[in-house]
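Technical note accompanying the year-one report. For the benefit of new consortium partners, we illustrate the data format agreed upon in the data management plan: each record pairs a sequence with a structure-token string. No post-processing was applied to the example shown here.
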Amino acid sequence: MRRFACYCVLLALLPSVAYAESGAASDFIWKVANLVLLLAVLFYFGRKPVQRFLEERRDGIQENIAASQKLLDEAEGRLQQWNAKGARLDADVEHILDSARQAADQEAQAIVAHAKASADRIRQGAQAVVERELSVARKRLRTEAAELAVEVAGRVLAEQVSNGDRERLVDEFIHDLEARRDA
């Protein structure tokens, strides 16, 4: 390796020596030779670092692609999970709405049944009150009718019964009482 480096240095110095004695045609040849020598030196010394750099760059890009693919796969998996959750959510919302509707219908039926039962109790209570009031009114009416009948009968008797009839009625009443007492 050292020898090659010495040869390269000598080759690099040759164009300067040639340039000192040259003309126009040889000048061009030495410039081309100088360029070729420079490219050869750069190729010899720069080949391995450039290859290493390009390999590292390629490996880094491959790692980035692999990491990106992994992230993409994870993101697609999560997207599928969220889509599944979204589908389940729609089904859950429908289930909840159906349950709420059924509960509301049952509650409405219970309220209606309770209201009907309350209405029946109120009707029965009102009917009982009406029957009691009717019974009380009938008793009052009978009492008033009896009192009125007694009063009318008393007037009729007072007008039609004489003192003799009264004495005879009192005697019959007393006689009936004595007969009942003896019996």
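Partners are asked to follow this layout when depositing records. The radius of gyration is 67 Å.
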